[in-house]
Specification:
Length: about 220
């Protein structure tokens, strides 16, 4: 499955990954793994993207996106196609005016410019995580089990956040949450709050690296 180029955050950099319940097991304590060196003080959205910055220069090239997807378990052909789509969508949005590099390069410092409409509001305008929004999301929509959502409840949440005037935004949000559910649902089919939290700051990526199904 490929997302539209406007699907920027969260989960854009997780295209086509499907790990079943491995995510839930990896972060079942909610703590997540440590992020890369040098990420202290940056926004959660920047941390989310920094997993793919293999040489830690603040720029994610198409090849780095490809490498990151491969590390997460995406097959080679799908990773190449996904990397091209991701960078084509985010590169021009995040590229500084004075940059002389490829328009496909993603600049992490400007990743906030990729935030789209019809999302949950869990990132603010500068890319900081807003815990209150995550709490509100699960309080309102986790009706079957506390702090967890079924697939139907995830779909209901996405629909509730939909802006009918922002087609690209709600299509992106729908794609992202469908993907997150496939990635992070547990063995009972629930998407747990702690696992969603770990996606927003990218800590889930470090737990899953090298554990994906490459079929």
């Amino acid at each position: 499955m490929l997302l539209c180029p406007d699907a920027a955050a969260p989960l854009l950099l997780l295209l086509a990954v499907s790990f079943g319940g491995q995510a839930a097991a990896a972060v079942k304590d909610g703590s997540g793994a440590a992020g890369p060196a040098g990420t202290a003080g940056i926004t959660e959205l920047q941390k989310h993207a920094a997993f793919f910055d293999r040489d830690h220069d603040g720029i994610v090239t198409v090849d780095e996106t490809y490498q990151g997807l491969m590390e997460l378990g995406v097959g080679s052909v799908q990773a190449k196609a996904s990397a091209a789509l991701i960078n084509a969508g985010l590169g021009p949005k995040t590229r500084p005016d004075n940059a002389n590099s490829s328009t496909m390069d993603i600049y992490i410092v400007n990743i906030k410019k990729g935030i789209h409409g019809s999302d949950t509001g869990a990132y603010n305008a500068v890319g900081r995580f807003v815990p209150k929004k995550l709490d509100e999301m699960f309080t309102k929509h986790s009706k079957t089990v506390p702090d967890a959502m079924t697939k139907d409840e995830v779909d209901e949440m996405v629909k509730a956040n939909r802006d009918s005037m922002d087609v690209k935004g709600w299509l992106a949000a729908s794609s992202e949450w469908n993907l997150l559910y496939k990635l992070a649902k547990d063995k009972d089919g629930y998407l747990r709050k702690n696992d969603v939290r770990a996606v927003y700051d990218g800590s889930l990526f470090y737990q899953l690296a090298g554990k994906g199904n490459k079929d």
